[in-house]
Amino acid sequence: MKYAMLIFGDDREWAALSPADEQDAMKLVYAWYERWQPTGKIADGGAELQPRDTARSVRADANGQPMITDGPYLELKEVIGAVVMLECDDIEEAARIAATWPLTAGMSGLEVRPVMSRE
């Protein structure tokens, strides 16, 4: 079954890293991928997201019509910064794999959720 591993944190902390510190953090992330990629547990790779100030939110306005606004709609300290798709037998296995993710500056936590299948 597929699981989405949502990586969240304060992207402003990540942006404040020096280039050397960012490189060190990415080495930890690459090492994580090198550990899990050969096992077949990473389903579709992942995607690092641009900072929150590049986002657009679409919500329904008072008349039910789409309204586009800049950035996240809510003021949040933490935002989703990346998504990794896992292929695991159950959510417990997915959570154990997620628990090995290197939580560095700007990455304060993870959420693991089953991906809906409508087959």
From TrEMBL:
InterPro entries: Dimeric_a/b-barrel, YCII
Name of one Pfam family that matches: YCII
Domain YCII-related: 1-116
Entry similarity comment: Belongs to the YciI family.
Designated name of the protein: YCII-related domain-containing protein
